[in-house]
Each structure stands twice: as C-alpha cells, then as structure tokens.
Amino acid sequence: MQDASILIVGAGTWGASTALHLARRGYTNVTVLDAYPQPSAISAGNDVNKIVSFSESSCLHDDPDYANRTFFAALSHGFRHDPVFQPHFHETGAITSAVSPEALKHIHRRDRPGDAVIELNTPDDFRQAFPSGVLTGPLQGWKGYWKQRGAGWVHARHALLAAITEAQRLGVRFIGGDPEGKVVRLLFSPPSSATTPSAPPDVIGVETADGTHHHADRVILAAGANADHFLDFKNQLRPTAWTLAHIRLTAAEAAQYRNLPVLFNADQGFFMEPDADRHELKICDEHPGYCNWVRDPVSGERRSVPFARHQIPVEAEERIRGLLRATMPQLAERPLAFARICWCADTVDRNFLIDVHPEYKSLVLAVGASGRGFAHIPSIGGFVVDRMEGRLEGRLAEVVRWRAEAAVGRDWEDTLGRFGGEYRVMDFGEVQGWTNIGEI
Ligand code: FAD
Ligand code: FSA
User: Fold this and answer.
1) Separation of CA 284 and ligand 2 centre (Å)
2) Under 8 Å CB-to-CB from 430, ≥6 apart: which residues?
3) Ligand 1 pocket, residue 372 CB under 6 Å
4) Which atom of ligand 2 sits closest to the CA of residue 94?
5) Which of 40, 197, 229, 408 makes an SS bond possible with 36, Cβ 3.0 to 4.6 Å?
6) Torsion-angle region of 47 (φ positive above 0: left; ψ -120 to 50: alpha; else: beta)
7) Which ligand has its closest atom nearest to the C-alpha of 226?
8) Which superfamily does 94-148+238-346+411-440 belong to?
9) Closest CA to 153 of 420, 363, 375
10) How far is the C-alpha of 200 from the C-alpha of 359, rounded, in Å?
11) Which fold has domain 1-90+151-237+349-409?
12) What are the tens digits of pLDDT across the range 291-347?
C-alpha cells in the first residue's frame, strides 16, 4: 500500500502538508503538481504571515465543537513540537477586537474572557498592550480580548517552504510551473464496456498543460480556490478573495515595531509585526470577501471564478489606510510596496471539506479551507491521509464530509460570520479602480 502512486494537485498550504504527512507515513511514490514553481505565487499560503491561535483538545464527550477543537489541538501540537514548523511560529499573543455591536458579539463568542484572556475596553487598554509610540491612533470605540499566550503568527512562506523541503527530502517529487505542473483536467476511467461491465466510474489521474497524462492510484485535489475548476462541487465551494498590502519601514522602524501582538479587528482589518527580511508591514482590510461572478455557459448559474492579480481595488487600499489612521496614523500615508488579492474557498458552513469523492473512489478532496486554513499547515495533511486510508475518526469525518445537500439553493451572498468593508460579499465586477504598484 505504501508504494501506491499518489498525485497531489496543488503544492499550496494543504497540498504541502499532505505531501509531508504521506512521506512521513512511508509512502514512496508521491508526486505533487502545481501550476507555479514553489512556493506558488498564487498560493494563499505564500505570504509573510498568518494568524495562529492554539486550543486544547476537547475533554467533553458530547462537545458540539469537538471537530474544531481536535483540529486546533493538532495544529497547536505541530507548532509547539514539530521541528519543521516550530521555528516559524512567533508566540507574540493576539488581540481580537471589533467596534460594531454585531462584530463585538461575534468575537465575544469566539474568544471568551478567561484566565489567559484579558479584556480591553478603552483605547488606552490597547495602547498599553503595545510598545510605546506604536498605537498612536484614536482607536475609537475599539473593544477586544488579548490572548497573551498560545497565539501569535507564523511566517507563512517559510513554513510552507519548510514543509515542501522536508517532503522532498523524504522523497516526494514536486513538479511546479506551466505547462508541466499545471493541471488542466482530471482523467476519468473509460465508461463500462464489455470487458469491464460493472466497473464504476473513477478518477485515474490528471492531464497537465503540456499534454502529459499522469496516471495514479490516488489523486488528492488540494488546489485551494481553484479546485472548483476541476469538478462539479455542487455549490459546496465559493471561491472568495481578500486583499492585502505591504508598506516598507526603515530598519530602525522595523526594530521599534518588533514583537507586536497580532491586532485583529473584525470590522476594520489586521496587522502584526513587520517581516524581518524586508522590513515590510503587511496590512489586511477585513470584509466578507470579493467574488468574481461569471455565468456558467451550461447551467446558466453564476459562479465565482478566481483570477490572479498583484494589485488590489483602490477601495481596499483606502480601507487599509483607514485601519492605519485608526491605529498607527504615523504610517498611514506611506506608499504601498506590494499588494495582492488572495483567494480561498468558503464552504457553506466554513467547515473544511476532506473526503473521498462519493462517486470517484480514488479521488480525495482536501479543500474548503474557508479563509482560515493556513494555521493548520502542520497537521491538516495527517487528517487528509487518515481519510484516504479510511481511518479518519467518525466525529471528524462527519463534519468535513462531502455535503452537497447543505449547498442546495446556496445563498452566495452569505457573509459567513464576517464583518467590515461594505458588510456584504463584494463583487469584483463593480470595482472602479485598482492600485498600480510598480506600474508607473
Ligand atoms: P492554496 O495555499 O492557495 O494552494 C492551492 C494551490 O493550488 C496553489 O499552490 C496553486 O498554485 C495550486 N493550483 C491552482 N491551480 C492549479 C492547477 N491548475 N494545477 C496545479 N496546481 C494548481 N488562514 C489562517 O489560518 N490564518 C490567517 O491569518 C489567514 N489569513 C489569510 C489572509 C488572506 C488575505 C487570505 C486570502 C487567506 C488567509 N487565510 C488565513 C486562509 C489560508 O491562507 C488558506 O485557507 C489556506 O492557505 C488555503 O490553503 P490551500 O492549500 O487550500 O490553498
Ligand atoms: O483569525 C483568523 O483566523 C483570521 S484569518 C484572516 C482572514 O483575512 C480573515 O480575516 C478573512 O475574513 C478571511 O477569512 C481570510 O482570512
């Protein structure tokens, strides 16, 4: 079984994690295909930082949040103890905050005050959580919770590359770039014939853009927001994009802004300390996301189709500057050094979709990261392999199963517990102007 041929489509966050876990379990014939050289320029995980928050496993037998807690306990263990990931995690603490009543109610449910969480009720409470001279803005109406331990950020690109490098060292083959790594379609077994009268249809491999047919015993689809392109997911995935930008600091400024807690505001956006290599501060504006709607020529239904762009809508830049004016106005007028849109795929309930396809038994789905899948890079691949091997614990399998029935008549406008921006899912088709960083 360990010598079965396995193809992973996508060397992003989940594909890399899955490759690593397969290799660690002794699989010897694993190939990962990606449309881009590693690390992929469009992977949602190819980023300077991502937020991570730990949680312990559930000790309650009937805990309705059992699956989530189990996934979080696994990532916590990975960032604490796995030598591949531990060096890239920074336990700076994290503040979750908001200003609108709805968002405040939401974050209260998410991070309840407890032993390890300090309530922040006034702008001064926030300022005191930071080194002096950093939060000079008004922070009007901000309230939140400061988790001082067991939270922080991970250098995402470094962690992604570490997973890929270790998987390669253990024998996994990565093919990245267009055309040799770009998958254009899945290959299906020929329909039943006289010689194979009752063979059910199955996926037998993939075709790449150079025309090569890669056959495999198992195909694991981990193409992030682009997974929707390969298969009819019955509306279970909604490719949705968020927006991020960097501003450059001087070396002296970067030193002053070192070791900040992550500051997340559910209405306005978030940032953490600047990256050590380039002294760039990444800032995200928070909102329910953008979709790119097109009409499906066959069904006539609309669907959101991802596209890559290393620019952001001007309105997102303005929101990013708004967040800076509220928090660090001394940085609010700096030119943007970098920006991009970044795609992920939301499921109906924002639970992951990790399952064997109901019809194609050799196809494993590792998708639906729902805008919070990076933190799981140390461990998610282990759950994917468990599912492939048919031994994913029942209570987890139930939460992440193929659930087309839940997406019937899906409300594409559902904000899925997100706030900020225009407080609605936005449409790239309505965007008036884009930034032109590096184009002048
Ligand atoms: P990806 O990492 O995007 O990987 C998909 C891969 O598929 C890519 O490498 C791509 O090149 C490849 N691919 C695409 N098409 C093809 C093809 N035709 N052939 C071959 N390969 C292909 N999560 C957190 O936990 N914490 C955070 O703080 C956080 N912040 C975020 C901020 C933003 C702005 C965004 C957009 C997301 C954030 N997330 C965060 C979510 C997280 O980044 C994603 O959930 C996670 O990275 C998804 O991993 P993935 O492997 O599914 O997709
Ligand atoms: O606390 C978190 O896990 C934040 S994930 C960061 C983010 O930008 C979201 O804020 C956004 O809503 C979307 O899910 C993409 O990821």
Assistant:
1) 9
2) none
3) yes
4) 1
5) 40
6) beta
7) 1
8) D-Amino Acid Oxidase, subunit A, domain 2 (3.30.9.10)
9) 375
10) 8
11) FAD/NAD(P)-binding domain (3.50.50)
12) 999 998 888 899 999 999 999 999 999 999 999 999 999 999 999 999 999 999 999
d(CA 36, CA 333): 34
The residue written with tokens 């010897």 in the block is 28
Q: Does any ligand 1 atom lie closer than 6 A to the CB of residue 35?
A: yes
pLDDT tens track for 147-164: 999 999 999 999 999 999
DSSP 95-133: EEEESSHHHHHHHHHHS--BTTEEEE-SHHHHHHHS-TT
With the most atoms of ligand 1 within 8 angstroms of its CB, the residue from 7, 8, 13, 160 to mutate is 13
The answer to whether the CB of 344 is under 6 A from ligand 1 is yes
- Contact between 317 and 336 (Cβ < 8 Å): yes
pTM, full prediction: 0.97
- Tell me the C-alpha distance between 371 and 128, whole Å: 30
Query: What is the CB neighbour count within 10 angstroms for residue 171?
Result: 13
The Cα–Cα gap between 309 and 312 comes to 8
Domains of the chain, by residue range, sit at 1-90+151-237+349-409, 94-148+238-346+411-440
